[in-house]
Amino acid sequence: MRVAIVSESFLPQVNGVTNSVCRVLEHLADRGHQATVIAPCRAPGTYAGFPVHATPAFQPPFYRSFRVGLPSRRISTVLTDFKPDIIHLASPTVVGAAGVTAAVQLGVPAVAVFQTDLAGFARQYGVRGMDAMIWSWLRHIHTRAARTLAPSTATMAELVERRIPRLRLWGRGVDLDRFNPAHRSEQLRRELAPDGEVIVGYVGRLSPDKRVHLLTELAGLRGVRLVVVGDGPAAPALRRRLPDAVFCGLRTGEDLSRILASFDVFVHTGANETFCQAVQEALAAGVPVVAAAAGGPLDLVRPGHNGLLYPPESPALMREAVEHLVADPAARSRMSAQTRESVLASTWTALCERLVEHYESVLEGDESPSEAPDRLRPHQSLMS
């Protein structure tokens, strides 16, 4: 099969879109498929043996480390020359819009992977009143795709409400070797928390869309060492407001594996997560999770089993959930023993095989209606 991936983000940017595209490319290479990638500039020339074609991009003034792709005639040229069987649109917005236009012109079906809550992203950056316009644009893109893959039941329900057609559920995989309790390091724990504190950690972008300012709600918790992993435009302000926290900066590879597995509690502040890869990675590493009861975490966190959920509009209850786990080592231990089991079926191999099945189904002409989203868990059990 010949697969062209048109992505809004790619290396050297590290985020959920980039991660999933890399895993898909590795799987396609392993299975002997042919692929090409179109992504914003500064990307490497190849990945997994496949060519990567750069498109123009710009850096938003409020987020200099992020690059936004721009539409380009090069997208149509690359796709025409490659002659794909199917076009994979990774979180289509701007570059993806050009990709789906080219797909229609070439008569090639496109599978769109919905991955970013753009309306929620805009609100977190103070841009109000744009929801209708954003959803109109996204609907314009996704209605021209042969299939849209939603990462969670909450996101699928939202897409149904927004009249996005031909939906299927496709989650995200996790590397069970890289994220594993075996990487827990007592030496690292002594370095991070020399007085034996309970380590409460966050991993992710330090940016307004992740609501990282809510981490300040955890300041002053007795017996707790707050550890923050990541970088972004909110980092300087957060460092000033949390002088006692440990800021590790951006970490990857073995460093990230050791740090994450060495947490006692993982806390996530975002409320616009279509999936939330960081939560799944923490669970795979054996760490109980405290997350907002919204979006992807609703599928991942089972309150009282592998973590706790808090109402996204109540940061005080986030602090209360963390306090509950800090004060109850038996509950942490019990949950820790169950976190990894909850994600064992979510390997990237299984998820990518399912993705190829979606490709094949679309190529066979299956245009059946959307799957019905599963019922979401009731919020009354958040702290059970």
TrEMBL record:
<keyword id="KW-0328">Glycosyltransferase</keyword>
<dbReference type="InterPro" id="IPR050194">
    <property type="entry name" value="Glycosyltransferase_grp1"/>
</dbReference>
<protein>
    <submittedName>
        <fullName>Putative glycosyl transferase</fullName>
    </submittedName>
</protein>
<feature type="domain" description="Glycosyltransferase subfamily 4-like N-terminal">
    <location>
        <begin position="14"/>
        <end position="178"/>
    </location>
</feature>
<dbReference type="GO" id="GO:0016758">
    <property type="term" value="F:hexosyltransferase activity"/>
</dbReference>
<dbReference type="GO" id="GO:1901137">
    <property type="term" value="P:carbohydrate derivative biosynthetic process"/>
</dbReference>
<dbReference type="Pfam" id="PF00534">
    <property type="entry name" value="Glycos_transf_1"/>
</dbReference>
<dbReference type="Pfam" id="PF13439">
    <property type="entry name" value="Glyco_transf_4"/>
</dbReference>
<feature type="domain" description="Glycosyl transferase family 1">
    <location>
        <begin position="186"/>
        <end position="341"/>
    </location>
</feature>
<dbReference type="InterPro" id="IPR001296">
    <property type="entry name" value="Glyco_trans_1"/>
</dbReference>
<keyword id="KW-0808">Transferase</keyword>
<feature type="region of interest" description="Disordered">
    <location>
        <begin position="362"/>
        <end position="384"/>
    </location>
</feature>
<dbReference type="InterPro" id="IPR028098">
    <property type="entry name" value="Glyco_trans_4-like_N"/>
</dbReference>
